[in-house]
Design goal:
Helix content: 10-25%
Order of helices and strands: HEEEEEEHEE
Shape: elongated
CATH class: Mainly Beta
Strand content: over 45%
Largest sheet: 5 strands, antiparallel
Distance between the termini: 75 Å
Radius of gyration: 22 Å
CATH architecture: Sandwich
Structural class: alpha+beta
Oligomer: single chain
Number of helices: 2
CATH topology: Immunoglobulin-like
C-alpha cells in the first residue's frame, strides 16, 4: 500500500468515526410490561420486560440499569393517589444491542408482601396491580457513555381478579 493510499484510508476512517460520534442518537429504553414471575408465602418476583432499541449504525452496550418499582395504594386509603415502593435495585448484566436492532430483557424484581402494606391488600381484593416503574440505564457506544432515563405506568392482572 502506498503512503498516499494509507493516508487517504486513515482520513476516511477518521471522518467516518467523527460522523458516527457527532450523529449518535440516544437509544430508546421502554418498559414493555410487567409479569408475575412467582408468588410465595412471604413474597414473590415480578418480571419487568425492558426493550432497548438502538437507532445507531454501531452496536451499543447497556449496563447498570437502576430501577424503582411502585404499586398504587388502594383508592379507599387516606391518600387516593399514593404510590408505595415495591422494590428498587440495580440490574448489572450487560445488554448488547447490535446496530439498528432491538432487544428485550427480563429483569427479575423480588419483593416482600410485608413491605407493601395497603397496596398488597388491594391486590388481593381486586386481583390487579397498578404499577409505575422508572429509572436509568447507562449506554456505551464508540467510547462514549450516556445515562438514558425510562418511565412506564400500567397494570397487570394476578390471582384471577374479580
Amino acid at each position: 500500500m502506498t503512503r498516499r493510499t494509507l493516508t487517504l484510508t486513515i482520513f476516511a476512517l477518521l471522518a467516518f468515526v467523527s460522523a458516527a460520534c457527532t450523529g449518535f442518537k440516544r437509544p430508546e429504553i421502554e418498559l414493555e410490561n410487567v409479569e408475575i414471575g412467582s408468588l410465595g408465602l412471604t413474597g414473590g418476583t415480578v418480571l419487568v420486560n425492558v426493550r432497548v432499541t438502538n437507532p445507531n449504525p454501531i452496536g451499543v452496550r447497556a449496563e447498570d440499569l437502576r430501577y424503582e418499582l411502585f404499586i398504587r395504594a388502594p383508592r379507599d386509603s387516606a391518600n387516593e393517589n399514593a404510590w408505595q415502593r415495591m422494590s428498587s435495585g440495580t440490574y448489572n448484566e450487560r445488554i448488547e444491542v447490535g446496530a439498528r436492532q432491538s432487544r428485550t430483557v427480563q429483569v427479575p424484581v423480588d419483593f416482600r408482601y410485608s413491605e407493601l402494606g395497603d397496596a398488597f391488600r388491594s391486590v388481593l381484593r381486586s386481583g390487579q396491580i397498578s404499577y409505575r416503574a422508572n429509572g436509568t440505564v447507562r449506554v456505551r457506544a464508540g467510547g462514549a457513555s450516556r445515562e438514558v432515563p425510562f418511565r412506564k405506568t400500567g397494570s397487570v392482572m394476578v390471582l384471577g381478579g374479580r
